[in-house]
Amino acid sequence: MFVQHNDGDLLLALSKEEIDSLMKLLVGLKNDQFGHFHLRYKFDKDDCENVPGVTDIEFSLMGEADVHNMEMQPCGGKIIYTDKP
Fold first, then answer.
1. pLDDT by residue for the chain (85 residues), tens digit each?
2. 3-class SS of residue 21
3. Amino acid 60: pLDDT
4. Contact between 22 and 57 (Cβ < 8 Å)
């Protein structure tokens, strides 16, 4: 997995095996098997202060008070989800 943060954009580049693992985690989250999960930067515990950019991404279910503020869209494709539930 490769993560890069540039000027407000976040790039996640995944292997096919990592996509399978991410899908399993998302299904587990949807089915309430756990409350959240993380994608974490691999770093030495003592060196975490010196790592530039994104070091932790947490996935959880939206709460009732949360407001939709992102869209999902395949490259060149139609928007899958907008802020209108």
1. 888 888 888 889 999 999 999 999 999 999 999 999 999 887 766 665 666 677 889 999 999 998 888 888 888 888 776 665 5
2. helix
3. 95
4. no
Per DSSP, helices labelled H in the chain are 16-30
Cβ–Cβ < 8 Å for 68, 79: no
Beta-carbon contacts of 25 under 8 Å, excluding residues fewer than 6 positions away, are 37, 59
Residue 40 has phi, psi (to 5 degrees) of -125, 145
15 closest CA partner among 1, 36, 30: 1
CA 84, distance to chain mean position in Å, is: 21
Per the structure block, which two tokens stand in for 62? 């939206």
And the tokens for 9? Answer: 């954009």
**How many residues appear in the chain?**
85
Residue 34 identity:
F
